[in-house]
Amino acid sequence: MTGKRRLFKRHEEDEVLEIKVAASLSADSGSRSFQIAKTIQDGLALGLGIFTLYTCFTGLLTDVIQRSLFLAFVMPMVFLNAFTKKRKEYGPIMKSTAVLFAVLSVLVYTFTALNYTKMGTTYGAFPPLYLVVATLGVLLVLEAARRIMGPAITIIAIVFILYALFGKYLPSALWNRGYTWTRIVKTLYVSSAGVFSTPLGTASSIIIMFVIFGAFLEATRGSDLFMDIAFALTGKSIGGPAKAAVISSALVGCISGSASANVATTGVFTIPLMKKAGYSAEYAGAVEAVASTGSQIMPPVMGSAAFIIAETLGLPFKVIIAAAIIPALLYYISVFLSVHYESCKRGLVGMEEKDLPDVKKTLRKYGLSIIPLFVLITMIVMGYGAMYTALFATMCSIALSFVNKNTRMGFKTIVASLIKGCKGVMSIATACAAAGCVIGIISLTGLGLKLSSLIINLSGGHLIIVLLLTEVALFILGMGLPTAPAYMLVAVLVAPALTQLGVPELAAHMFVFYGACLSSITPPVAMAAYTAAGIANASPIKIGIQAVKLAIVTYIAPVFFVYSPELIGIGSLSRISLAFISGIIGCLGLSIGVVGYFKGKLNPLMRILAIGAGLLCVYPGLLTDSIGYAVIFVVVSINWIMVRRRQAKQIA
Fold it and tell me: Is the pTM of this model over 0.85?
């Protein structure tokens, strides 16, 4: 059976599996309640899709009205997961409260949209009805976040709310005068600084359109096209399946921007192939987890946090893309080189010709699917708004699907894709709303400035100490939060301290963003590693440890582009080009040092020298680059000579 046929078979098996899972859920949950909940959830997703497309064409509504109506669709879908997700804790009580909360969500957020003008212009005493609505609005957001993402972000938000309530009892460094519940809830719900702040605004306009675009691109078999291209390019080379996993995850990541979703999409195919080729289950899972994590920093779509950076800093999205290009390329070059030398070290070979897909046939069948992605990139570069760019690219995807019978979408497929895309925004929408509660408290109490001063004082004004403290904060938050909320919380607290120490604002936010992305693969809690572990049937902790080794550049590079912004495209073209070339050579040094192999195995001293030289090269600067180049040249030359001599002795 050819690789292409196996790919088709995998899709058929996935469809059968989905049917079986749905049947199992129906049997476990009661077919009637399951079907009713699923129908309502699909209806809400479709309604959200129609509302989103309508406002894209006619123009967005007033900020809070747009965002509250967005929540009126999203929040009930989150609570109805109690019926459509197979989880032991979703018993009768949980399901009953889910129905209650779903109904309350529709009533509360619709009421807010219809009465926001009155609520926002109420001075003095806050009418009891408005207070009840605002309180419910905040509590529903926190409960939804707990249900869909776990307790971490809800606990953090509650701690910040308690800080605002009882701040007058704290030491002077963190003291605030203490606020009444009415004042707090008005800030969190009625103003645009809390639940309805910039993160939710970005989710309700830009992020949702890009998620919808990704769903339509997948429906036209764009992900199949990317995977086939990746396997055709690298399948026959040394370690072909692993290299194909890296490239396919990078390409599919261009349209997904989600590490766990990327692992689930490509990993079911690449991980078994890597295991079959001779890789251990842990290494196969790590390669897929690392490659998929890079999707969050891979232009043009990137992760949802990238859109929030653009909106927060008031920059065109193309600026964020430009800043991400070099770090993303260095990330994947480093992973690719590590995979190559690990494959050489293990003596692994590539795939057989008969198992590789026929790219010409794939291009004939699905080649048009890639055009919308180029349309998206072109429009972003030309300066068009991100939301309208995603809308136009989605329309192109639908229109082009009719040209080829292999990608043609009927009415049902279009509706299903729209529903799938809108369901895909539940987690990020809830995360943005919950993170808005923290942002609102920081705005109300002035905690951001206090913490910035405290951090600077603790560090003694040393930038490297602030960076290390930031990495620790991201590591702790990353154990319980996805990338976007981890970025949002650390950015509002730490980024001001970085800018006060002279770090360019874009570099400060990109540093936090890249650090937040690593939560997907950093043990002990690493969602991409856990997803890969389920496919590879291996330990998620062992996969996480292997992933950290593979992604070493991403742990190091953010610190360097704070000191040398050329790595994120800030500076002259010549200096940016030199930084990129040095970065590639640095990736080579780091890869052979971490793996311990070039033409043959490296001894411990040579590995240390290679890693040190790689670090010197990643840090731009003529002196550091020159030393790094020289040391890497010496290491690879000595290793090459030693291997040749050993081979000559064996022949003799």
Answer: no
